[in-house]
């Protein structure tokens, strides 16, 4: 099992767009900042576009732009756009119903997982791209 870095990369992408904006940035330029393949960037940008966070324009001078003011985009918005679903997954194939733990573990965990998801989303909802851009500029000086 691995942990996804989609949220972190998407936050990087949008912080870069906000930092460099309003000029459009190419997926190749963004990939250079993230230090990954442009295909990875384009996949995440597609999810961010579906969520209404970014838009693109083709042709010379084209690229990707942030569609909302950085102060109006929270890390929760970004997380929801690229991760979807729950923070924790239950067994995909139900555990053994003949076992006392197997038949009850999922219901025992559901409330705990829901509370953890709510806490994560509440924390991510407190930080906007504007906060991150300010922090990045301070750290870069």
Oligomer: single chain
Helix content, binned percent: 40-55%
SSE order: HHHEEHHH
CATH topology: Arc Repressor Mutant, subunit A
CATH superfamily: Winged helix-like DNA-binding domain superfamily/Winged helix DNA-binding domain
What average pLDDT do the residues reach?
93
Radius of gyration: 19 Å
Protein name: Rrf2 family transcriptional regulator
InterPro entries: Tscrpt_reg_Rrf2 (IPR000944), WH-like_DNA-bd_sf (IPR036388), WH_DNA-bd_sf (IPR036390)
Organism: Mesoterricola silvestris
GO cellular component, one term: cytosol
Describe this structure in words.
- This is Rrf2 family transcriptional regulator.
- The structure is a single chain.
- 21% of the residues are buried.
- A two-stranded antiparallel sheet has the order 1-2.
- It has helices at 6-20, 27-34, 38-50, 75-82, 105-124, 129-140, and strands spanning 54-57, 63-66.
- Helix content is 54%, strand content 6%.
- The protein has a single domain (6-140), classed as Winged helix-like DNA-binding domain superfamily/Winged helix DNA-binding domain (Arc Repressor Mutant, subunit A).
- The model has no long low-confidence stretch (mean pLDDT 93).
């Amino acid at each position: 099992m691995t942990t996804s870095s989609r949220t972190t990369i998407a936050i990087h992408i949008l912080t870069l767009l906000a930092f460099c904006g309003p000029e459009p940035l190419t997926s190749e330029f963004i990939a250079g900042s993230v230090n990954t393949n442009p295909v990875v960037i384009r996949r995440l940008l597609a999810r961010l576009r579906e969520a209404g966070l970014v838009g693109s324009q083709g042709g010379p001078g084209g690229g990707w732009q942030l569609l909302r003011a950085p102060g109006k985009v929270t890390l929760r918005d970004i997380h929801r756009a690229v991760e979807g679903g729950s923070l924790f997954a239950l067994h995909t194939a139900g555990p053994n119903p003949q076992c006392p733990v197997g038949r009850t573990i999922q219901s025992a965990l559901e409330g705990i997982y829901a509370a953890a998801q709510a806490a994560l989303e509440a924390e991510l909802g407190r930080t906007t791209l504007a906060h991150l851009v300010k922090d990045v500029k301070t750290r870069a000086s």
